[in-house]
Amino acid sequence: MLKQLLTILQDETIYQVEDIANKLGTSTAMVVAMLGMLTRQGYLGEVEQACTSACKGCALAKQCKVASRTDAHIWVMNAR
Amino acid sequence: MGKSTVFNMLTGLNQHVGNWPGKTIEQKTGVVNYKGYKIDLVDLPGTYSLTANSLEERIARNYLLKNRPDAVIIILNAATLEHSLYLLTELINLPIPIVVGLNMMDVAKQQGFQIEENVLSAALGDTPVIPIVASHNQGLNKLLDAAIEVSQHPNQTLSQKYRITPSDYPHQEIQKQITSKIQGKLPAIYPTDWIALKLLEGDSEITSMVKESAPETWKSIEMLLIDHEDTFLDIAGSRYAWIERLVRAAMTNPRKGTISLTDRLDKIATHPFAGLLLLIGISGAVFWLTYTLANPIVYWLGNSIISPLALWSKSALGNAPFWLQGLISDGIINGAGMVLTFLPILFFFFAAMGFLEDIGYLTRAAYVMDRFMHWMGLHGRSFMPLFLGFGCNVPSIMGTRIIEDRRARILTIMLSPLVPCTGRIAVITFLAPAFFGKSALIAVWGLVSLNLVILASLGILTNKFIYKGKRTAFIMEIPLYHVPNPRTIGLFIWNNLVEFTKRAGTIILLVAIVMWWLSNYPGGNIENSILAQFGHQLAPLGHCLGWQDWRITIALLTSFLAKENTISTLSVLYKIEESGNLAANIASSLTMPSRLGFLAIQMLFIPCVATVAAIRKEAGTKWMVINILLLLFISFSAGAIIYWGLTLLGVK
After folding, report:
1. Sequence-ordered list of residues with C-beta below 8 angstroms from that of A7, at least 6 positions apart, any chain
2. Domains in chain B, please, with CATH?
3. Of A52, B92, B134, B231, which is most buried, counting CB atoms within 10 Å of its CB?
């Protein structure tokens, strides 16, 4: 199942989790769980949306936070 | 998951908090006195698996293997069962009795999930599965009863317990070969087949241990592992297949299959074409609302508050020295004060953005926009920094730190200043009604679009001819739409207005004072001032772009310190309290083509000094200089093309 997921992600385009779930014939929750696993293994990176670790100590972190409160989870393929 | 809540509920004050030996991870232990039993409870670090990806996972699994507790209570989140079951697939293979606490049953019910714990328990070989709501102390006694029960009959429990056997995995033959090679060569606490499995999963800690403990056989094991590099995906994949079967058997969601409001709305909002049209329509509506609602208030503030206040201060300071009178009336009240009339524009703009964000629409906008980002050779990580630019370009530049690929990062930094910040938008919204009358809204919209078109074109060209960037897959989990929270939106508006007011009280005020001084010395006459002499030197540039008035060139240059300074400088130089409406006065000195050209330059001009400093910090001096030169070229070219193009077409 994980291999199928990675095969789908080779297409280098943009997906909604729902699209992937439909392709794999599973639930979105299963896809999110597998994306989490692939992220922990380094296949994917989860995009930080607010100024978090990368912006530690930055005086503008608060302003960034205010302007980027979207609560979507975003992942991108990492080069391996 | 609620693991710590369960621990706290059970142990109460009988807790000891320290660190795991030699580690900085917190260790919590406690004692539970229950039905005559004294139970020692250890709160293991939260983990997703038993593979050594993190320190927490290493601590948890080493504790389990070395200390062999009488029972393990694993807390699963019933509302996100798929997420937490992976750990169970690993735990179940260890020779330790297990009890499953199915937490957050109330939330799962609210979300429409029905979980049959008996089915779950049967599928796990009669492993006890106890529904609980830890935060309300529901089911915790049953959890303890079950833990006591399994710890008292470990052999019976372990023989019944379902195990994901090697036959469930591919590569089982390899696992058997490795098991036979390491048999008896490792510390007894580690089950040999488990070690073999972890080697196939590429577990770094176990690999090092086997290398040290069985050096004579390591070479042959390594050869097997090299030949089966992708076993992790197969093993983890088969665990997920097992999880899916388990969830399908034990959990139902009667709401599944029904089309929700979110689904219906998203059919349009995330559609490649309809979604884009909707985004364009919504952006237009935001500008229309901002313009329609804010501008009457802006003019009222300017004409009824700022100008009369400047006149009043001048007469009140009638006996004061010339410099004090001019500084307060023209420099501070007219200059910096005029910028404060932007507050209604910013209020309505941020209210609209806050609303769209709070209902969850902006996430959809990001999804639709990402297709374009791909054309520009930018991947998903670039969207958020660029999107931040609509507020202020500085956090936009800083936000590129989340982009690991330097090439994509530099490209994002170079493009960021082309996203019109609220400073630029406020300036054009302030001037547009006097410049374009009834067509003001279309002009504002067109100018914002021009920036975005240039941004996209530059990105596509750079990607095609310079970077030849490779695209990467980008996955988004879009949340449900939700009812907007007035408090959240209110805070969003408030924080942004406070930031703006701080800027108006510092850099904008300072520039207004300096501009007043430079425009009044020597002699108190603007035409003989230092600024005028400098302005006249720049006159040829203004002539090329369609304006004869040097004050406009100076105002444009002061926008380098803060975009809003264009207005404060024009207010100082045009002395509005004597001559009425500022925007109308500026408009009267410009033709229609030069008005549009001037605003296009204002929108595309080099960013403010804070942004330039951020570019230098994040990308280096070379890219900062390139960015300045590029934006000077783009802005003046666009202004000249607009002015000369429209003039040649006969527009006046």
Report:
1. none
2. 3-160 (3.40.50.300), 172-227 (no CATH), 274-469+491-648 (no CATH)
3. B134
